[in-house]
Specification:
The complex is a heterodimer of chains A (282) and B (84). With 282 residues, chain A is mainly alpha-helical. Chain A has four domains: 50 residues, no CATH class; 52 residues; 72 residues, no CATH class; 78 residues, no CATH class. Helices cover 57% and strands 1% of the residues of chain A. Chain A has a two-stranded antiparallel sheet with strand order 1-2. The radius of gyration of chain A is 50 Å and the shape is rod-shaped. The N and C termini of chain A lie far apart (107 Å). Chain B is an all-alpha fold and 84 residues long. The longest helix of chain B is centred in the C-terminal third of the chain and has 19 residues. The two termini of chain B are 26 Å apart. Classes of the chains: A mainly alpha (282), B mainly alpha (84). Chains A and B meet through α1 and α3 of A and α1, α2, α3 and α5 of B.
Chain lengths: 282, 84
């Protein structure tokens, strides 16, 4: 390199310091003198200055879809006021308390329903000479621990108030071969038995009555074919109810039969409810 | 005297040059994508965001001279990309 006339290669090595302003005035003048007579180096200087100016005019680069907001939210935890946090705790405790209370109520109800035995109501058995109990062919059956009421009959004990495993006097024992049927009542021996009624049945029967009233009122609003289908279904359910009740008359303590009866009644309630909510025919 | 070997009186570099206003914003932005990561980082920090070489050197764990060298290299590569 000569002091006065550097080559292009020598200028290339100086351009870095030239653009950074690190060249002393003598070498700076030397580069500028060369560029003034060299199109290549003049263009290079112009282009690099142009790039620098254009870059300075660019806005500060930002992520294309403003990713920083999402990053910032993840880095910095949300500031939650203490009062709000305390309020939140109170609310959650209240909710937990309500949930616990609801759980207790539900579990108690389920336990009650699951363990509920059919309510034993007093069985009215009219006993007398030749009195029979349906299904009991060879002896008069009295429910243990259930008070019985006897019809006036001088020959027998008029009333026995539920002694466990009560012995029946031989005089009251029916004759063999004569079972509990219509013949017994036709002989003047009255038999009126009240079957024990479960809690579910006691609750469902009045509801069924109310829903049937609704059905009667809505009858004119519904399509005849719908009415027909409903009545057919009700007839099937009623038949099942009737069978279950008849079976329970013979075996009042049967949990299975009680459950069948309750299920049938529940089906009836559901059907009637559905009918009550059916839209009127257009 | 500037050598002029073109018919219009401008050198090819002068034709490519848009000074004042070297290329539009999209050209430079696109050309930036082609730079090597190190050179691009220094160029962005210095020429776009305005940091000094000493600051860049501290941020990037390099020397100020290294920052200057990377910046010059980035400018030359950008020029090459913009004149293609």
């Amino acid at each position: 390199m000569t002091e006065q006339h550097p080559t292009c290669a020598e200028c290339d090595e100086l351009f870095l310091e030239y653009f950074e302003g690190d060249l002393d005035s003598a070498r700076r003048s030397m580069v500028e003198a060369h560029a003034s007579s060299c199109a290549r180096c003049q263009g290079l200087i112009r282009d690099l200055r142009g790039i620098t100016e254009a870059a300075a005019a660019l806005p500060v680069l930002e992520p294309s879809r403003d990713l920083w907001k999402g990053i910032e939210q993840r880095i910095e935890p949300a500031v939650v006021p203490i009062t709000f946090r305390r309020e939140g705790i109170h609310l959650s405790r209240r909710v937990i308390g309500l949930a616990a209370a609801a759980l207790i109520v539900v579990s108690s109800s389920v336990t009650y329903v699951a363990t509920q035995k059919p309510v034993k109501q007093p069985v009215r058995v009219v006993t007398g000479p030749g009195a029979f109990v349906p299904g009991a062919s060879d002896e008069i059956v009295s429910q243990p621990a259930v008070p019985t009421e006897t019809a006036p009959a001088p020959e027998t004990t008029p009333e026995v108030s539920a002694p466990p495993a009560r012995e029946v006097k031989p005089a009251a024992k029916p004759r063999p071969g004569v079972g509990g049927n219509a013949a017994s009542s036709s002989r003047g021996t009255a038999l009126a038995s009240v079957r024990p009624q479960s809690a579910a049945e006691a609750a469902l029967v009045p509801e069924i009555a109310q829903l049937q009233d609704v059905l009667k009122q809505r009858r004119s609003q519904l399509d005849p074919s719908t009415i027909k289908v409903v009545e057919d279904n009700l007839a099937l359910i009623d038949a099942a109810v009737k069978q279950a009740r008849a079976a329970l008359m013979r075996d009042p303590a049967s949990g299975f039969l009680t459950e069948r009866l309750d299920n049938a009644l529940q089906k009836k309630v559901e059907l009637l409810r559905t009918v009550a909510l059916l839209p009127s025919r257009s | 005297m500037v050598e002029d070997d073109s018919e219009s009186g401008e050198t090819p570099l002068q034709k490519a040059s848009v000074t004042p206003g070297y290329g539009d914003r999209m050209d430079i932005t696109a050309a930036l994508e082609e730079l090597p990561p190190g050179a691009r980082q220094i160029f962005v920090l210095h020429d776009i965001e305005g940091y000094k070489h000493e600051e860049i050197a501290e941020m990037c764990g390099i020397t100020a001279g290294g920052s200057k060298a990377q910046l010059h290299r980035a400018r030359l590569l950008l020029r090459e990309a913009l004149t293609r």
